[in-house]
Specification:
Layout (H helix, E strand, L loop, with lengths): L4 H13 L4 H8 L3 H10 L7 H11 L22 H10 L12 E3 L5 E4 L11 E3 H10 L7 E5 L12 E5 H16 L2
Antiparallel strand pairs: 1-2, 2-3, 4-5
Helix pairs in contact: 2-3
Length: 187
């Protein structure tokens, strides 16, 4: 697209005399702002830096969120949210309603599978339970105590078959892992 005399005269009038931004002029003519910037360079001038352009935008064009009132104002720029609005925002993207929902099953940094279970009495982070503990609880028909540990017999942290799980306490669990480390050292 070539620079027409109309665009050239508009650039001289709007960009240099009235300090309008290239983006604003581009919208007026239905062209991309980079075309206006390139046109300015073709005319032999240096375009303004971004900071100078932003001065015009905030001085002459209102931000779309400024001045909003009513029910939708809670998300607007510079507005404080009421407790009710905060709660509604918090609840609207939790669990299955979240756009990032992947079935509620994921891995933590240690390699254990964690499951979304917000109603569990021992859920950490408010809604997550280690899957191997949940499977053991379902097998036993009761919730595990905090001192009860679930050991993976084959050492694979995401193998949560009931045949691979064993209920133990911290002392026996540590002893079993120590035996396994010693056996690996002597191999």
């Amino acid at each position: 697209m070539n620079v027409t005399d109309e665009i050239r005269s508009a650039i001289e009038e709007l960009y240099f005399k009235k300090n309008m931004s290239a983006r604003y002029i581009g919208r007026m003519f239905g062209v991309h702002h980079t075309f206006i910037t390139k046109s300015i360079r073709q005319m032999g001038y240096d375009p303004r830096c971004k900071a100078e352009q932003n001065k015009f935008t905030w001085m002459h064009q209102k931000h779309p969120h400024i001045g909003l009132t009513g029910e939708n104002a809670y998300w607007a720029y510079g507005r404080k949210k009421t407790d009710e609005q905060k709660k509604r925002l918090s609840e609207q993207n939790k669990g299955e309603k979240s756009p990032n929902w992947k079935g509620g099953r994921t891995r933590n940094v240690d390699g254990y599978v964690i499951v979304y279970a917000p109603d569990h009495p021992r859920a950490y982070n408010g809604s997550q339970v280690l899957e191997h503990r949940l499977i053991m609880e379902q097998y036993l028909g009761r919730h595990l105590q905090s001192w009860e540990y679930v050991h993976h017999k084959n050492g694979v942290k995401d193998d949560n078959r009931i045949e691979n799980l064993e209920l133990t306490n911290i002392k026996e669990h540590a002893r079993e892992h120590m035996r396994r480390r010693k056996a690996e050292c002597h191999e």
